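Sync notes, pocket subgroup
Present: LS, DG
LS reminded everyone that the earlier model was apo-only. Rerun requested with protoporphyrin IX containing FE included. Inputs:
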Amino acid sequence: MAEETPIYFNPWDPAFRDNPYPHYGALLAGPPRLMDLGIKVALVARYADVIRVMHDHEHFSNMGPPPPPEAYQGRLAGSRNLLGTDPPVHTQLRRLVSRDFTPRRIRELEPRIREIAAEILDRVERTGEFDVVKDLANVLPVTVIAEMLGVPVELNATFKEWSDKLIDAGNNLPGTPTPPEVVKTVDALTDYFEREIEKRRKDPGPDLVSALVQAHDTGDVLSSADLLNFVSLLLIAGNETTTNLIGNGTLALMRNPDQLALLRSNPALLASAIEEMLRYDGPVQSTVRFPKAAANVGGAEIPAGAITFVVLAAANRDPAKFPAPERFDITREPNEHVAFGEGIHFCIGAPLARLEASIAFGVMLDRFPNLRFKDPELKPKYKGSYILRGIESLPMTIN
Ligand code: HEM
């Protein structure tokens, strides 16, 4: 039997999180690999294998084992959300929100998103200081999702803080208790939305929470805890991911001046440039699945119970699918990346994320023709999550 290439995969190693890409080559060279990270894991990286797993929800469940007793759940205990369910529950839950996320419904938000982006960049112009992450990427998506959920603008900063804390909680080492500030956040978030849910029940508005309350009351599909869980998922999924697309995408564009110049000379390439940002350095590095029974994937046997990392960002660099995968090429066509997942759990927010990114990049490049790194030697600092990859800060010069 041929020797297996050594692999390195450790989501808890900051150096690995900073740049996992060099480690994907060995994973892409063969069938899925099994590892012991204190828990048994399987690593699925090749494009064809990723597609295979994401379509096989009979074997590969989205429902993990129950959370360990040390993981604090508060009033979310026992609840379900889209991402953590399989059919038929997933199908029922997805039906409840899919009409609020159709490309047509999302297009109606365009004027308001443009207004928010313009307000942000007006502020930047006045001060002359521009950190793409802190001033734009951290603000635009949270404002949009908060408005969709009917949360007042004064609470945006609190909202962002809650979302950040809940994402940090995902970096806890398995077996360690939930830190007190995360416990506080889970309680604050659920208190807030419980009150809001009551208000919308009496006085429904055009927002998503009102729509979900109605679904809960009439359809009997969502329990109260499910409703809270759903809103929390939207807060995180609709926020950090798009933030990281704007941050990682700006970084890729600025590090490839020929591609930046090409985009500036041909703005019609914007949509295709955003697809390439998603492929090249996507906000979601990996997702996970839980095999219910042993399954053969690409020639490897994945045992039941092995936590299966489906490494979307590695598949997006698979040379068997993408010619010259390490090249950032905004004209790449076709570009069938899996940055938004694949199959029944395909990202419901993809039309919204694409719209927000196209407005953010369109307005930013238009307003700031001299946009460049403040520090040409910039070594970006990555936030603490492997799964949700993004940088903390990206200071730019605009004049
Ligand atoms: C660039 C931004 C985004 C990226 C890269 C992204 C990525 C993903 C991925 C990879 C999945 C599938 C996960 C899996 O199958 O395990 C997913 C699912 C999901 N996303 Fe996104 N997402 C983004 C933006 C958004 C936004 C803006 C929203 C909502 C406003 C959103 C809401 C969701 C929800 C609710 C799911 C679960 C869908 C289901 O299980 O049926 N996402 N996203």
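DG: The domain at 14-397 is CATH 1.10.630.10 (Cytochrome p450).
LS: The radius of gyration is 21 Å.
Action: DG to write up.
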